[in-house]
Structures are given as structure tokens and as C-alpha cells.
Amino acid sequence: MTILITGGAGYIGSHCCVAFLEAGHDVVVIDNLSNAHPECIERIAEITGKKVAFEEVDIRDQAAVERVLRKHQCSAVIHFAGLKAVGESTKDPLAYYDNNVVGTHRLLSAMSNCGVRQMIFSSSATVYGEPQFLPITEKHPLNAVNPYGRTKLIIEDMLRDIATSNPAWKFSILRYFNPVGAHKSGMIGEDPLGIPNNLMPFIAQVAAGRREQLSVFGNDYDTRDGTGVRDYIHVVDLVAGHLRAYEALASRETPSNCFVVNLGTGAGYSVLEMVSAFERASNKQIPCVTAPRRNGDVAEIYADISTALEVFDWKAENDLDAMCRDTWNWVCKNPRGYEGR
Ligand code: NAD
Ligand code: WQD
Predict the structure, then answer these.
(1) Which ligand has its closest atom nearest to the C-alpha of 61?
(2) 165 Cα to the center of ligand 2, angstroms
(3) Inter-axis angle of helices 199-207 and 320-333, to 10 degrees?
(4) Contacts for 51-56 with beta carbons within 8 Å, 24 or more apart?
(5) End-to-end alpha-carbon separation of the chain, Å?
(6) Of residues 11, 96, 128, 148, which has the active-site annotation?
(7) Which is the closest atom of ligand 2 to the Cα of 230?
(8) What does the pLDDT read at residue 262?
(9) Of the residues 3, 57, 147, 243, which has the maximum number of CB atoms within 10 A of its CB?
(10) Digit-coded pLDDT (tens) for 200-212
(11) Residue nearest to atom 23 of ligand 2 (CA)
(12) How far is it, in rounded angstroms, from Cα 1 to Cα 6?
């Protein structure tokens, strides 16, 4: 039985392929390469010593997805494919509803036609909106405040409705906090196109001399040093959570046929703490300037991780120093990311 990994040539998907291949599973990747480089597939094969089945397919192409599901006799899907930039989603919401919502609808329709009824879905802490209490439990009210977040919520609702309609479907909805870091080999990692939107890749590019300085978006939040606090999680831990989610789905030891789990560490770090940790890991100075708050940012958010521990018997193992060390190793070995991007 093979697991279909959509978006498996992307940042988190590629790490997930490595984890599943190393755990002895067969995988097939589909990706339209809109935010990925085919070299990544070669690197996954090099790390694991296993051949990786790859098909350049868009999830919106239902017939092509059905063909892949049948050809590889897939039994489950791990669904990463989609667009993920909050700012871009406010400028081009149609692209987000098309790729994320329409794409997932077509993928689910293909699965239904092929009798594949298990999915692990990449959701996001962004669905919680402004925290009403901390740490954030899975029962925290949902209030996405941008088109990207709303696509994730709509997909979550679609999965809940399908699960209710037919108990044969099984869904694990994983709400990621802030994934960072890279595989310890330094062969795969996050390779943003253009100016990075997120903190960690931006800091890494400043350390590498590709950018002059970091703009710290706001230093007057009600946090311990005035800068935004987030729950950063090492991508290798994050994908280990997917492996546990898959094992739980497959063994039916789940609380229901559609359940939600936060994936974070439970600890929050401020922007300035991230800068200091990266300076330690890289032995480089990160020049910073204070800039206005970024629209839509919250002061502080971090996960309650007790459900992950209870349901998956899983918790993150890597600390902030490991996250920075592994990011720096990836950047040093691939200063321009995957070649040709
Ligand atoms: P990524 O952009 O690196 O990976 C997504 C992959 O999907 C890319 O390889 C892209 O080429 C592919 N893709 C996009 N649209 C597609 C389509 N229509 N058909 C086929 N392939 C398509 O992003 P990532 O950081 O690896 O994120 C993976 C998932 O996790 C996304 O769904 C994202 O929303 C979610 N997520 C990410 C974060 C984060 O901070 N990275 C946080 C929470 C949730
Ligand atoms: C972290 C902190 C910024 C860049 C985003 C998405 C979320 C999820 C993860 C997909 C904040 C500050 C950042 C910079 C800065 N993605 N910052 N200077 O905003 O928590 O979450 O990525 O689902 O949906 O919203 O992460 O890395 O952008 O920001 O000061 O150049 O760093 O203000 O406090 P965020 P981030």
C-alpha cells in the first residue's frame, strides 16, 4: 500500500517523504512545482537511498489524481499541496480559493471515486485568529482573519462534513504552529522564492549576507520584550507528528473519524530571542531595525500540546538551538537554495 503525498516536493512535504520512506512506507509524490524544484525529489532519494515515485500533477486535475491513486494503489493521502502566503492571499484571494479549496475538493472527489478514504491534512494555527486565551487548545474558537486562513477553515469544515456523512472516511487535521529548521543532512530545507515572508528564512538570509538587515515588525506588543511571540517547531519533529497521525489512523486508535491536533512545542519565543538564537548558531551578527507592526499580526500565540501527547503519544524533541543550527546548515550548504530557482 502506497501513501500519496500531495505537495511532497515542497518544504514540509519533502521532509515528510523522508520520514515516511525511512519508516518503511512506500510513497508517491504529486506536485505541480509551482513552489518547488524537481531537484528536491533527487535529494529525498539521496537521503533515504530509496527511489521516489514522482508525478508532476496539479491537485485540481481530478482525472490525473485518479490515475495516480489507481496506478500506485494508494491507501491514504497526506495533503500538503496549496498556497500559503497570507499577504498574497489578500491580493489574490481567487487563486487561494482555487488552489486550496477547489483543489482539495477535486482531490477528495478523486479519492472518493478510487475508494481511498484516509487523509492527513495540513491546517494552520492561523485558523484561531486573535488568541482569546493561551495556550491555544483545539477547542479555542475559530476565527480566520485572512483569505488564506479562511481557505484552511473551509477545507476543515468540508472534511468534518464528509466524515459525518460516512464513517468510512478518516481524517486527521493537523494545525501547525511555526515550522522552521531543516533535515540534519542540510540537503533539503525551506527555499522561499523572492523575499521571504517568514521570520526564520529572513533571519537566515541576513546571516548569509543576502539581505542587509531584519525589520522587526513592532517592538511595543504586550510581550516580555515587546516583540511578537510564536511557537516555532522543528520541521523534523512536525513530520514525526504526521507519522504518528498516520499510525493512529491506520490502527483506528483515534478519538473519532475526524479529529484535530495542534502541532507545536508549547513554548513561545520572541523575535529578538529568535535573532539571538540564530546569532549563536551561525556565529554571525544579525543587524535589526524596528519597523511598524505588520497588519494582522497577533502579539503572542503558542500551542497547548496535550492532545498530541494523549492521542499520538508524541511531542517535539528539538529545541530552538537545533532549529537554528539545522537552518544554518541548510543555508550554508545551499546558499541559493535549490539550483536554478
Ligand atoms: P510549500 O509551498 O513549500 O509546499 C507546498 C507544495 O505544494 C509546493 O511544492 C507547491 O509546488 C505544491 N502545490 C501548490 N499548489 C499545488 C497544486 N494546485 N497542485 C499540486 N501541487 C501544488 O509549503 P509548505 O511550507 O511545505 O506548506 C505545506 C502545507 O502546510 C501547506 O498546505 C501550508 O498551507 C501548510 N502550512 C504551512 C505552514 C508554514 O509555515 N510553512 C504553517 C501552517 C500550515
Ligand atoms: C513570526 C514573527 C512577525 C518577518 C505565518 C502565517 C501562518 C503560518 C506560519 C501558514 C511575527 C515577525 C516576521 C520579518 C518580523 N503559515 N517578523 N520580521 O506570522 O506567526 O505565521 O507563518 O499557515 O499562517 O501567518 O510567522 O514567521 O511571518 O512571523 O519581525 O521580516 O516574526 O511580526 O511576530 P507568523 P512569521
Answers:
(1) 1
(2) 36
(3) 60
(4) 52/17, 52/21, 52/27, 53/2, 53/26, 53/27, 53/28, 53/29, 54/8, 54/9, 54/28, 54/29, 54/30, 55/28, 55/29, 55/30, 56/30, 56/31, 56/32
(5) 34
(6) 148
(7) 20
(8) 98
(9) 3
(10) 999 999 999 999 9
(11) 124
(12) 16
Architecture of domain 2-181+232-264+304-317 in this structure:
3-Layer(aba) Sandwich (3.40)
Q: Which ligand is nearest to the CA of 262?
A: 1
Task: Give yes or no for residue 178 CB within 6 A of ligand 2.
Answer: yes
Give 308's DSSP letter. I
Distance CA 3, CA 24 (A): 11
User: Pairing between strand 269-270 and 229-230?
Assistant: antiparallel
Q: What is the pTM of this model?
A: 0.98
Residue 292 carries which DSSP code? P
**Of 294, 298, 300, which is best to mutate to test ligand 2, by the most ligand atoms within 8 angstroms of its C-beta?**
294
Residue 148 among the catalytic residues? yes
CA distance 233 to 322: 10
Q: What's the farthest any 2 CA atoms get from each other in the chain? A: 56
Phi and psi for 200 in degrees, rounded to 5? -60, -50
For residue 72 the three cell numbers come to: 500506485
Separation CA 124–CA 85 (nearest Å): 12
- Give the burial class of 1: count Cβ atoms within 10 A of its Cβ; 0-12 exposed, 13-18 middle, 19 or more buried: exposed
Grid coordinates of 206: 541576513
Give the pairing type, strands 74-79 and 2-6. Answer: parallel
Mean pLDDT, to the nearest integer, of 35-62?
Answer: 97
Q: List residues bridging with 209 in a β-sheet.
A: none
| Burial class of residue 126 (count of CB atoms within 10 Å of its CB; 0-12, 13-18, 19+) | buried
Instruction: Quote the pLDDT of residue 341.
Output: 55
79 lines ligand 1 (CB under 6 A): no
**Per-residue model confidence as pLDDT tens digits over 135-158:** 999 999 999 999 999 999 999 999
Task: Please give the average per-residue pLDDT across 71-91, as a whole number.
Answer: 97
Closest ligand to C-alpha of residue 173 is 1
